[in-house]
């Protein structure tokens, strides 16, 4: 059994899959296996994956590639977890990369024996909106943050396989299945550990429309978990406050967009 399974799910990802594969292949840490779950791609994705299979084999790293239809990204991620033979799981999608060649070494140097879930920092960028910053989770406040929303990016986390299999991703959700796993693990007293490492680079392009949908799914997940019956009054108050603040920020962001559109239209009118 290896220490870690890195699971990449993809479909028609010929433009991005290579950089993901290389970020895994170039790791100095080698006690891992690589599992690629492809959703029956019709482009060059599989050709690119197969091009690197021998390089993994030469490094004595087991690589497993499965290509077949699935029922969405979370179904594919569950398939990858079911095929893994490791202690830890990491899900790295086909548009994300590990932040450096030493990431895995740095993570396991800090890992404590009793930890069930590890989470770290993420470099988030957008080529469309021209921003690039490092998201550092509020580790000291994680016990409250997770009651409201995902406190970290799942690509920058690892979860023990025996813990994950108690929950698995709920394929009834399009955006919030990862939050459901981590929230329920937290409520069941899984041990979370913050590692001060930039784990992955995450592109925020193309997901702006998911924000409101995620929040709606989060509400449903909390209701299913009977969240407000299981937390203290102080945490209930924090959840209400944080929820209001999230919506205020979203409304403010929308207003800025509306203002920009209005200014452009006015500029056109007076040209």
From TrEMBL:
InterPro entries: Glyco_trans_2-like, Nucleotide-diphossugar_trans. Pfam families: Glycos_transf_2 (PF00535). It comes from Diplocloster modestus. This is Glycosyltransferase. Residues 5-136 form the Glycosyltransferase 2-like domain.
């Amino acid at each position: 059994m290896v220490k870690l399974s890195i699971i990449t799910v993809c479909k028609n990802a010929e433009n991005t899959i290579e950089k993901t594969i290389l970020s895994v292949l170039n790791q100095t840490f080698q006690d891992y296996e690589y599992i690629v779950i492809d959703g029956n791609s019709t482009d060059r994705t599989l050709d690119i994956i197969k091009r690197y299979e021998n390089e993994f084999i030469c490094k004595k790293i087991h690589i497993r590639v499965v290509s077949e239809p699935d029922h969405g990204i979370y179904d594919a991620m569950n398939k990858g977890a079911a095929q893994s033979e490791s202690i830890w799981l990491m899900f790295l999608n086909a548009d994300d990369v590990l932040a450096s060649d030493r990431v895995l070494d740095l993570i396991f140097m800090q890992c404590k024996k009793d930890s069930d879930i590890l989470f770290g920092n993420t470099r988030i960028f957008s080529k469309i909106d021209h921003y690039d910053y490092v998201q550092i989770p509020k580790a000291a406040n994680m016990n409250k943050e997770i009651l409201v929303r995902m406190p970290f990016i799942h690509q920058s986390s690892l979860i023990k396989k025996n813990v994950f299999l108690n929950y698995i991703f709920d394929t009834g959700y399009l955006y919030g299945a990862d939050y459901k796993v981590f929230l329920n693990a937290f409520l069941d007293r899984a041990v979370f550990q913050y590692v001060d490492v930039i784990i992955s680079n995450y592109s925020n392009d193309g997901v702006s429309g998911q924000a409101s949908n995620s929040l709606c799914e989060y509400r449903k997940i909390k209701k299913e978990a009977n969240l407000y019956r299981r937390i203290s009054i102080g945490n209930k108050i924090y959840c209400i406050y944080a929820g209001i603040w999230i919506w205020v920020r979203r409304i403010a962001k929308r207003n800025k967009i509306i203002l920009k559109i209005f200014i452009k239209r006015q500029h056109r009118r007076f040209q």
